[in-house]
Amino acid sequence: MPASSPAAASVNSSAAPPPAARLVSLDVFRGLTVMAMLLVNNPGDWGHIYAPLEHAEWNGCTLADLIFPFFLFIVGVSIVYALDSARCTQPHGPLLGRIARRAAVLFGLGLFGALFLQWDLATVRIPGVLARISLVFLACGVLFLKTTWRQQLGVLAALLIGYNVLLQLVPVPGLGAASLEPETNLGAWLDRLLLGEAHLWKISKTWDPEGLLSTLPAVGTGVLGLLAGQLLRLKTLEAAPKVAWLFVASGAALLLGLVWSSWLPLNKSLWTSSYVLYTGGLAGMGLATLYWLCDVQGFRRGLTPFLVYGVNAITVFFLSGLIARGLNKWQVAGPGGPVSMKQWLYDALFVSWLPDPYLASLAGGVACVLIWLGVLWAMYRRHIIIKV
């Protein structure tokens, strides 16, 4: 479910895409995830979305609900591949500074995106996708530098069990017994207390799907990625055992998540502990499959579209959000009065000839993915990789 401004980014114009040292399967997995995120975030019509591409109303897990945890899992794996050699040969102080700077840039980009064309600090949404990515990146970066994989496994268990206890056993101040409902759960109360309703998700106003408390188990999703990355980096195992171990461990996490969901439901907005294990298990199995195909067997045919998305993932996520907001703000004359440019384009290009509103909405989202594919492909051919 992850860009940079010219001032905050560096352009690597000398790196060949993808560099030989890159884990191709990780770039492909990241590309697939961001393409799916773009499709889910940009339907032609929010009122007509096929069920798999729509988030679960509350409890449950659809295809759309897998995207963000997959990206956080990828963040964890990426940290391992970026820092594994450096943590053994370089002082940790500068590395921690680099992690903190990158986290701050990601958080700042999220805040800029929330303020774009609506410069109101009094009502700006503070939580958000990039804010959560920044916090998970910061926590997982520190954990990777300062702890062993066994300690990380202990941190994961503590986060998931502790969060479960908080949600289901701790009374909500001023509201009564523990609750798992949108407005009355402990996380929603904490967000209102610390951030205020003016800074929460505008659709709900009283709770936020990327709130403060639920960022704790989201760190757990990143830790699952750390563990997967360290397994794949092991020099003492051949490729086949690595894939087998990752697949088996991921399958076990998925099954544990399903069992846990019988008393703590799968829920993206709460980022429940069962949801962490279920989605992390699926992510691990997906990465294991791609690792075997791409990095072990050397399969490359037809992967370029995913690679071009994968190497510039944050860029397309950030810029697509800014452009979508701009098109929604830009008013033009329509048959029944002023409409947004986005609505005008959608009506003219899709609704005008596709009779099924669901198909037209899907076509609008696919068109968005293809347009950005063209932009990113041009960047890829010119070896342009924008890094935060």
TrEMBL record:
Pfam families: HGSNAT_cat. This is DUF1624 domain-containing protein. Residues 22-162 form the Heparan-alpha-glucosaminide N-acetyltransferase catalytic domain. PANTHER family: LD22376P (PTHR31061). The lineage of its organism: Bacteria, Pseudomonadati, Bacteroidota, Cytophagia, Cytophagales. InterPro entries: HGSNAT_cat. The keyword Repeat does not apply. The keyword Metal-binding does not apply. The chain crosses the membrane at residues 66-83, 103-119, 125-145, 152-170, 211-232, 244-263, 275-294, 306-324, 358-380. Keywords: Membrane, Transmembrane, Transmembrane helix.
